[in-house]
Write a structure and sequence with these properties.
With 232 residues, the protein is α+β, with helices and mostly antiparallel strands. The chain is 16% helix and 35% strand. A hairpin with a 2-residue loop joins strand 4 and strand 5. The longest helix is centred in the middle third of the chain and has 11 residues.
Length: 232
């Protein structure tokens, strides 16, 4: 059962997500010169829910991505799919979309980066992907199990929502939820809040071409929305 969060600080509806470096522009006439050069190229919002076992053991994360409208059209076009009369997907197309999007690329870096007590936590390969169309946008969700469950009564955890090269920009717009029984826990959404130095770096990144990768390693982490979770 999904249980709403007990407490939430603030969320953001801004734009900032995952490898799958398919070319953003299938046809040049669909892309403005700005879109061809701006970095990041794909905008995804969504969030992360927490799957708990007995005793407040964190066992897995459920990750949700909601692609921007343009990327949605590009993905469907690349699979030679189109909307039906109800502006949705026929079930056969939806199932084929699930199959194709479940073929994760070798360079997939997660988008949900978990730490416990400040140390990185290993997550298993994505599984149980589902896909649907929501208000004209492709939404996918999938699970990332922890290699070893974490006792939330003893450790504070944080999830940063980003893709390392910032080719995809992720934003947390969904309220974090608990799946399973949860003792009092307070997830706090911490939106990225740029300062003057961030603005200068963002301006540099915006000038990169589509095939260029930022020289700064793991640059996406600098612009990540985060969820901090502390349980009593």
């Amino acid at each position: 059962v999904k249980v709403p969060q007990v407490a939430l600080a603030s969320s953001t509806s801004g734009g900032r997500l995952p490898p799958w470096r398919a070319s953003l522009c299938a046809a040049a006439l669909l892309c403005s010169p700005a879109a061809l050069s701006a970095h990041p190229h794909v905008f995804v919002d969504g969030g992360v829910d927490f799957i708990l076992g007995d005793g407040n053991l964190l066992e897995a994360l459920e990750v949700t991505w909601r692609y921007d409208a343009f990327e949605t059209l590009y993905i469907l076009s690349s699979y030679e799919m189109s909307l039906n009369a109800e502006n949705g997907l026929d079930e056969a197309d939806r199932l084929e979309l699930v199959r194709r999007r479940s073929e994760w690329p070798d360079d997939f870096d997660g988008s949900a980066h978990l730490t416990a007590g400040g140390e990185p936590v290993a997550l298993e390969w994505p599984r149980d992907l589902d896909a649907r169309l929501v208000d004209g946008r492709l939404e996918v969700s999938f699970l990332r199990s922890l290699a070893s469950p974490i006792d939330l009564n003893e450790t504070e955890v944080e999830v940063a929502f980003y893709e390392s090269t910032y080719f995809f920009a992720f934003s947390i717009t969904d309220i974090p939820m608990f799946i399973g029984e949860a003792a009092p826990c307070a997830p706090q959404v911490i939106p990225f809040d740029p300062d003057e130095g961030d603005a200068e770096l963002l301006d540099v990144l915006a000038r990169l071409g589509r095939e260029e990768i930022p020289a700064i390693a793991n640059v996406g982490a600098l612009f990540a929305d985060r969820i901090a979770l502390q349980c009593a």
